[in-house]
Amino acid sequence: MSGVIPSVESAKRLAAFAAVDRHIRPEDKADNRNWFRHSLGSTVPYVVERILEQGPEVNTARVFIPTGTHAPPQGSMTCFQSKELVVTAGLKLGDVDQYPLIDVTIDGADEFIVVADYRKNSVVLGTSYKQGVPVEVAPFAYAKVLRNLQHLGSPTANLRMAIKKAGPVVSDNGNFVIDAPFPSDLLENPYQLFQQIKMLTGVVEVGLFCGISREFVQDLTLDPATRATPESTKGIPVFHAITVVGSRNKEKAIEFVTQHAPDGGWAQKNDFTSMKRTPDAVGSYKEVWEHPDVDIVYVGTVHTSHFEDALGALNAGKHVLCEKPLTLNAEEAKVLVGLAKEKNLLLVEGVWTRFFPLVQTFRKLAFEEKVIGDIKHVVSDFAIGRLDFISNESRLLSRNLAGGSLLDLGPYPLLWAFLALYENPTNEKTEPVLVSASMLKTKTGVDDFTSWTLDFPKLGARADLMCNLSVINPNEPTKIQGTKGEIIVAGPPSRPTALVVRTRDPGAREFEPDVVYDFPIYGVGLGWEADGVGRSLRDGDIECAIVPHETSILQMTIFDGIRQLGGYDYPEGLEKVKK
Ligand SMILES: NC(=O)C1=CN([C@@H]2O[C@H](COP(=O)(O)OP(=O)(O)OC[C@H]3O[C@@H](n4cnc5c(N)ncnc54)[C@H](OP(=O)(O)O)[C@@H]3O)[C@@H](O)[C@H]2O)C=CC1
Ligand SMILES: O=C1OC[C@@H](O)[C@H](O)[C@H]1O
């Protein structure tokens, strides 16, 4: 078949030609323009062929910067081969240190070279830790990343240099480290900054801890008296100590302790305990479970890891506070609850909102004072508007991490239906019926928009619940409606800040003026959860009455039903126990 290009090759050639014609035009040849060929795939010879067709007078003002791996996937080129291609074609070769300003990056779609390893959660730096956000970069890209970090708002970002030898510090993975100090206004939204840095080509790791564990630890360092509630003043007060921090990567655990808990929790900082001040840092979760100074393990890992982490801790004889949702499905939740009971250990799902003083006031208004009459309808819509700046590999978008809005955000709209309807004394814990559910998926195949309806037959009441990752919904996302009016839960359903009671007398046309109950939040707001769980431990409970096991299992049963109706099956192997 000589002379006939196989169809795949012809497609590659066409694609390469189209890319050059659109993005590398003959007029783009000013002296200061450089070209960056990145991660050379098998399409690149065609790119070069098309560029050469533009003629030598156009190409003399261009610089070509090949990159690539030493052992690329089959069908791709090595860095050496790509250099050869440039030199043989008579084009001018350069490197990224010399020409950090890149105009065009060309990458074959079949190959993906570096990239943001989303595993790292991060640290808001700049207060006690002045060195800046540590960013691990692939050496070939450091000059470009440095410039991009400067553009992102860190003008003094610089390459970390070795102290006892010449040259840059080289990480265990053979990469360089840039220290990037950012101003406090940018660090106020660490998640966004983290994602922006992570998305820079060449960035391997970002030492900016912005996950929930950082926030939890931050609240454990605050004085519990600042967030005192009537129940926290009863009996022996509880204080918190952080005795060990675990990560799959020991260096990361050390960095976490250095940046966020150098003096442990409030009890250690204030000498309320004989525990040593600085928590140990260990390189596996198992070492946390087995640590002799640990009473309770806080599981703040990704959803796919909750079951095994909670199981491991319980099996090691430790009490567990596990982030929401407890597990991936109802069967796994039942196994954990069964094991905790068998071992006489406390197991609590970290539905932190339940511990807010606002929730107690809600119950008082709704059920004792019945300010809105009989509750008939709950509407709650949790939307976080993050889709645009999270990577496909993040825990929210990756199918392999059971991503999507339902597991991440769904517990909160459901919480308001549970509080107002399921736990309504008149309902006598009659389980709701899932009457409908649907999911609109992201390109990665996880759910973005998910909505579901629950009917509560005993109350003749309904809950219309929604969550999504795409948009934001700042106004009145949660409303509890009754026969005489409504209670608006202001603020995110996870972290509400006020209750607004809006009522109307029967027969009246006008509503009464709103009655607003404000609830200041101390720190992030996780301290109330820590205190509540601490009290359960103090009292020897194996279940925390504020987050009953039964609601954790019911939540997962409802989520299983929603996923079934929405066509969302987890990839094989994620669920460790299935029906
Ligand atoms: N209560 C609340 O308001 C909030 C609760 N959450 C909940 O907290 C939990 C963690 O969320 P968040 O902190 O945002 O999550 P992150 O994406 O930041 O991940 C947390 C940690 O999970 C660990 N991990 C374990 N296995 C994996 C894996 N296979 N891939 C990636 N990471 C892994 C990593 O720790 P390491 O590398 O150190 O081992 C990682 O740093 C979730 O359950 C979430 O629903 C989240 C935000 C708010
Ligand atoms: O629990 C949560 O509440 C707040 C959200 O922003 C976060 O994604 C979620 O995990």
TrEMBL record:
GO terms, biological process: pentose-phosphate shunt, non-oxidative branch
Pathway annotation: Carbohydrate degradation; pentose phosphate pathway; D-ribose 5-phosphate from D-ribulose 5-phosphate (non-oxidative stage): step 1/1
Catalysed reaction, written as an equation: aldehydo-D-ribose 5-phosphate = D-ribulose 5-phosphate; D-xylose + NADP(+) = D-xylono-1,5-lactone + NADPH + H(+)
UniProt key word Cell inner membrane: no
Domain of life per record: Eukaryota
Single GO MF descriptor: ribose-5-phosphate isomerase activity
Domain called GFO/IDH/MocA-like oxidoreductase: residue spans: 367-487
Alphabetic keyword roster: Isomerase, Oxidoreductase
Its EC number(s): 1.1.1.179, 5.3.1.6
Domain Gfo/Idh/MocA-like oxidoreductase N-terminal: 243-348
Record Pfam families: GFO_IDH_MocA, GFO_IDH_MocA_C3, Rib_5-P_isom_A
InterPro entries: Gfo/Idh/MocA-like_OxRdtase_N, Gfo/Idh/MocA_domain, GFO_IDH_MocA-like_dom, NAD(P)-bd_dom_sf, NagB/RpiA_transferase-like, Ribose5P_isomerase_type_A
Family: Belongs to the Gfo/Idh/MocA family. Belongs to the ribose 5-phosphate isomerase family.
The protein, known as: Ribose-5-phosphate isomerase
